[in-house]
User: Which sequence fits this backbone?
C-alpha cells in the first residue's frame, strides 16, 4: 500500500461515553499487601584467641590486639516476608487454577527450587514426613499437617528454606527476591505456560503498561537546536485536550527555565504526585508571545491505537489492549465515519500480544450491534462469564478487514474471533498464536504479582482459542503465488481456506494435538508483511470479494472435514 500520501490522524478526546455496553465485568483479585516485620539478624560473638606461647612473648614485647573472627556478611533475607508472600500466593492459587491442586502439591513443587539452587539437596515425601536431604543425610524432617492451611504450608516452606540456608552456600547467598522467584518458577513449571510470578521491579513496569505508571502530563520532549520542543502528545493524557501542539517550544516548567537542560531532565520535572498542578510556558514557532498552560498530572496508560487515512480506507493499528484502548478506538472511529467517501476499515492486530480482556470485549462492542463476544470458563465461579455486548455498531456496517499474524495473541485474538464469527470482519494473514487462556492478577506483600490462569476462552461459535488460534479467511503466509490464486478464486466465489475455517469452527475442547496441527498447517503462523495490507485493500474495494470471504464463516457448528496432520 502506498503510504506517501497517507494522512496521520490526531483526534481530540470526546466528552461522550463509549457506545455499546459490556454486560460482564472481569474481576482482578488483588489481596491487600501484607507488611511483615523485618527479622533481626543474628549477631556473631567475638571469638577469644588462644594465649600466645612463652616463646612468642619473649620474641616481642609489643602489645597485641585480639584477632576478630571473619563475620558472615551474607545478608539475611526477611523470612517473615517470604512466608507472607508464599502464604498469600498459595491462598490465591488454590481455588483458581484450571485444575485442582492441594497446598501440599504447590508447596513441594515450589521447594524443588532448593534442588535447582543446589543439586546436592533433594526431598523425600514418600513417608509420613517430608525430609530435606543432602545426599543421604537428612537435614530436616517435617510432619505433614492433615488439614493444613495456606499459612501452615507457607511455614513449612520457610522452615525448609532456612534449613537449606544453614547447610548450603548456594542457598545462603540467594537474596529474598531470588528465593521467592525460584520458588514460584518451580511451582509454575507444573502448571500452564502463562501462569507466572513477576518480581517487584518488573511488576511495577507491567502495571504501568496496563493502567499507567508515575503521574505526568502525557507529553514527550525532543531537542530542536537550542530549544526543547513537544515531540509527541499521548492521546490518553492531560495534555491531549489542552492548547498544546507538537513542535511547541517548552520554555519553563513551574517557573524553572528549560534552557540548557536535557529532555530527560525536564521529563523528570513533569512527573510527580497524581492530581498535582504543572504550569508550562510555551511558545509556538512563528509567534511572538509565549502562553501559559496549567495541567494536572495523571497516570497515563501508553497509547495503543494509531490511525491514518489512505484514500478511501482508514487503518487503525492496535498495538496492545491497555486500560484505554477501546476509548482510543472509539475516538478514531467517530472521526472516521464523518468521511462520506470511506469504503472500509482495516484493524491491524499484527504483533499485538493482547492485554486486558475487558478492553477487547469493549472494542468488539464498538463494531457489533449485539451478541456474544466471548465466553470464559474456569473452575472458580468468578471466572465464568458470557461476555455479551449490545448498543450498536459505530460504523453502521462499514466493511472491516482484520490483519493478524503468528504473534497476534490473547485479547487481540478474542477481538478477531468475535468479529469473524459474527461475520462482521474478514480476517487476513496467518494463523494466530493460539493463546486462549485468561489470567487473573494478585498483588503480593513484596509488591510482586502472580498471574494465574483461571479460565479458557470460547469463541462465539463455541470453539476454543487455546492452541488453535484464529484461522483467517484469506491466508497470506504461503507465498505471493498462493495469495494471487486465493484472490482469483475469491473473485469467482471460492474461498481456498474454506476447509480449515470450517474445521476450526467445528472444533470443541479438548482438542487432540494432532487435530490442532492439521488445522494450523493449512495457513502456518508467520510474521506479517506489506502483502497483508494490499490484500485487505483489494478485498475492501471489491464488495463481491468481501461478501464471499464473509460467507466462509459458518452460521453455527457444522461437521468438520477430515484434515491430516501428516506432511
Assistant:
Amino acid at each position: 500500500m502506498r503510504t506517501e500520501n497517507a494522512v496521520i490522524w490526531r483526534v481530540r478526546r470526546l466528552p461522550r461515553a463509549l457506545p455499546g455496553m459490556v454486560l460482564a465485568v472481569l474481576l482482578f483479585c488483588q489481596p491487600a499487601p501484607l507488611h511483615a516485620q523485618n527479622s533481626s539478624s543474628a549477631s556473631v560473638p567475638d571469638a577469644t584467641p588462644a594465649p600466645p606461647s612463652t616463646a612468642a612473648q619473649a620474641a616481642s614485647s609489643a602489645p597485641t590486639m585480639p584477632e576478630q573472627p571473619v563475620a558472615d556478611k551474607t545478608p539475611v533475607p526477611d523470612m517473615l516476608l517470604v512466608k507472607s508472600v508464599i502464604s498469600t500466593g498459595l491462598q490465591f492459587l488454590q481455588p483458581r487454577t484450571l485444575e485442582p491442586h492441594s497446598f501440599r502439591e504447590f508447596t513441594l513443587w515450589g521447594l524443588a527450587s532448593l534442588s535447582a539452587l543446589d543439586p546436592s539437596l533433594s526431598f523425600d515425601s514418600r513417608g509420613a514426613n517430608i525430609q530435606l536431604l543432602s545426599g543421604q543425610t537428612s537435614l530436616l524432617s517435617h510432619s505433614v499437617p492433615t488439614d493444613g492451611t495456606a499459612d501452615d504450608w507457607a511455614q513449612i516452606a520457610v522452615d525448609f528454606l532456612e534449613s537449606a540456608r544453614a547447610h548450603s552456600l548456594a542457598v545462603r547467598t540467594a537474596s529474598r527476591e531470588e528465593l521467592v522467584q525460584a520458588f514460584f518458577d518451580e511451582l509454575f513449571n507444573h502448571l500452564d505456560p502463562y501462569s507466572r510470578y513477576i518480581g517487584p521491579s518488573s511488576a511495577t513496569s507491567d502495571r504501568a503498561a496496563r493502567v499507567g505508571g508515575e503521574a505526568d502530563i502525557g507529553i514527550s520532549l525532543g531537542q530542536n537546536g537550542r530549544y526543547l520542543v513537544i515531540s509527541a502528545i499521548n492521546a490518553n493524557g492531560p495534555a491531549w485536550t489542552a492548547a498544546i501542539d507538537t513542535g511547541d517550544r517548552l520554555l519553563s516548567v513551574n517557573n524553572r527555565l528549560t534552557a540548557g537542560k536535557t529532555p530527560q531532565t525536564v521529563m523528570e520535572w513533569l512527573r510527580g504526585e497524581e492530581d498535582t498542578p504543572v504550569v508550562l510556558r510555551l511558545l509556538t514557532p512563528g509567534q511572538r508571545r509565549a502562553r501559559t498552560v496549567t495541567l494536572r498530572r495523571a497516570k497515563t496508560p501508553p497509547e495503543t491505537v494509531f490511525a491514518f487515512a489512505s484514500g478511501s480506507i482508514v487503518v487503525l493499528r492496535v498495538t496492545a489492549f491497555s486500560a484505554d484502548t477501546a476509548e482510543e478506538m472509539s475516538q478514531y472511529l467517530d472521526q472516521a465515519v464523518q468521511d462520506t467517501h470511506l469504503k472500509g476499515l482495516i484493524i491491524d492486530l499484527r504483533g499485538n500480544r493482547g492485554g486486558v480482556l475487558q478492553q477487547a470485549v469493549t472494542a468488539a462492542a464498538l463494531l457489533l450491534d449485539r451478541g456474544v463476544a466471548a465466553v470464559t470458563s474456569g473452575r472458580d465461579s468468578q471466572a465464568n462469564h458470557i461476555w455479551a455486548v449490545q448498543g450498536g455498531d459505530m460504523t453502521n456496517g462499514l466493511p472491516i478487514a482484520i490483519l493478524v499474524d503468528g504473534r497476534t495473541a490473547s485479547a487481540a485474538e478474542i477481538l478477531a474471533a468475535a468479529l469473524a464469527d459474527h461475520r462482521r470482519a474478514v480476517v487476513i494473514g496467518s494463523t494466530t498464536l493460539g493463546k486462549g487462556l485468561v489470567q487473573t492478577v494478585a498483588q503480593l506483600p513484596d509488591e510482586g504479582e502472580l498471574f494465574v490462569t483461571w479460565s479458557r476462552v470460547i469463541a462465539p461459535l463455541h470453539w476454543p482459542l487455546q492452541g488453535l488460534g484464529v484461522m483467517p479467511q484469506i491466508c497470506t503466509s504461503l507465498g505471493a503465488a498462493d495469495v494471487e490464486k486465493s484472490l482469483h478464486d475469491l473473485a469467482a466465489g471460492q474461498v481456498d481456506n474454506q476447509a480449515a475455517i470450517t474445521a476450526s469452527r467445528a472444533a470443541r475442547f479438548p482438542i487432540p494435538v494432532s487435530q490442532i496441527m492439521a488445522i494450523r498447517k493449512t495457513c502456518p503462523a508467520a510474521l506479517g508483511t506489506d502483502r497483508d495490507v494490499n490484500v485487505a485493500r483489494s478485498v475492501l474495494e471489491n464488495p463481491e470479494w468481501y461478501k464471499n470471504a464473509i460467507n466462509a464463516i459458518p452460521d453455527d457448528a457444522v461437521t468438520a472435514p477430515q484434515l491430516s496432520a501428516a506432511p
DSSP finds 17 helices and 22 strands in the chain. The chain has three domains: 79-191, 213-297, 305-552.
